[in-house]
Amino acid sequence: MGAHAHHDHEVKVTVLPPDSAKIRKIWVTCGILAFLTAVEFLLAFTMPRGVWLTAIFVILTFFKTFYIVGEFMHLKHETKVLIWSIILPMSFVVWLITALCVEGDAILVLREWVK
Amino acid sequence: MATTAVVSNNNRWGGGVSPFGASYGKLMMWFFLLSDALTFSGLLVTYGMSRFSHGAFTKGVDLWTASQAYWPIPEKVFTHIPFFHISAPLAFVGLMTFILIMSSVTMVLAVEAGHRMDRAAVQKWMLWTILGGLTFLSCQAWEWTILINGSEKGLTIMEDGVARTIFGANLTENEYGPQLFANLFFVITGFHGTHVLSGVVLNFIIFYKTTIGDYERQGHYEMVEKVGLYWHFVDLVWVFVFTFFYLV
């Protein structure tokens, strides 16, 4: 035990040089994220509000998710079984969104009716 | 041949290797984030439902005035920027989004430096990440203050036949629209802010342990990766809050 502790400060570390290809990819991903955010921002003020604008926002957000989770969180490069154990449970949220939006609409109709 | 310990590719579950190709800690971080994502989904979908269950203002963005009769248009509520007394819709949240994305980038750069065992670079990028997180939190504190204090003229409502002016939004009154809008705003951005705060604390611990050489002695910087996963998740949640709370 004591001998082990004694060796602790003698760790030999080999520092590798920066992986420029990898770093370039990080900045490219960052650029894409910033660009998509800028597009969303621009559309918020130039397009009329409605189903189309909402649809575009959802699609752009989906793309941003793909880049953050796939590249930054590295999920794209993990094993298939890991990718699916994350995506499959999350996909059930789609139903939650559908169900509660329909439900919310029904509440609105009821509210108008009560008035 | 039978005695050689070679695990074939189609028998990953036969033992001897990690079938997920990831360490226990990283895998558990993923599953924690999955559960956390479901929590945030619940909150954001509740926002969607509340929005659908209230009437929308249909007469055009320029004509909008605050009323509790319909859901507010976010770009008309969040118009403030620090130091200037002008109307700059969504500019400040845009900046906050950019800050958080940048701190995500510095986090990936810290992970990359960790792979190369470059202690100084990990320290540098972790410090930038911590700075990004703290800046974001300060921005959020400022935005909450603006929303809580409200506009100069407030909103006059009729209460049992008596007129009363309310200023700002909190958990019991809301100048800008239905009460649920304020409640969901404070709960969702508050819950996200709490995540950012704990992320900053975790990032600081990682920075400290890097500085005292703990990871160098362990021979790897995997802890930076695990905390990095959490930090990117926090960034991801903000991307959703930005879209569904401020833009739509």
SSE run of chain A:
HHHHH
The termini of chain B sit apart by 63 Å
Per DSSP, the total helix count of chain B is 7
Distance between the termini of chain A: 79 Å
Q: What is the β-strand count of chain B?
A: 2
Percent strand of chain A: under 5%
Rg for CA atoms of chain B: 23 Å
| Secondary-structure element order of chain B, N to C | HHHHEEHHH
Structural class determined from secondary elements of chain B: mainly alpha
Stretches of chain A where pLDDT falls below 50 for ≥5 residues? none
Global morphology of chain A: elongated
Number of strands of chain A: 0
Radius of gyration of chain A: 24 Å
- Total domain modules of chain A: 1
Low-confidence stretches of chain B: none
Instruction: Summarize model confidence as the mean pLDDT of chain A.
Output: 89
Which short descriptors sum up this protein?
heterodimer, A: 115 residues, mainly alpha, elongated, B: 248 residues, two-stranded antiparallel sheet, 2 strands
Structural topology:
The complex is a heterodimer of chains A (115) and B (248).
Chain A: H1 2-7, H2 20-46, H3 51-72, H4 80-91, H5 93-114
Chain B: H1 24-52, H2 74-77, H3 91-115, H4 119-149, E1 155-159, E2 162-166, H5 179-211, H6 214-218, H7 222-247
Antiparallel strand pairs in B: 1-2
Helix pairs in contact in B: 1-5, 1-7, 3-4, 3-7, 4-5, 5-7
Task: Give a description of the structure.
The complex is a heterodimer of chains A (115) and B (248). Chain A has 115 residues and is mainly alpha-helical. Chain A contains 5 helices and no strands. Chain A has one domain (20-114). With 248 residues, chain B is mainly alpha-helical. Chain B is built from 7 helices and 2 strands, in the order H-H-H-H-E-E-H-H-H. Chain B starts with 23 loop residues before the first helix and ends with a helix. At the A-B interface, helix 2, helix 3, helix 4 and helix 5 of A face helix 1, helix 3 and helix 7 of B.
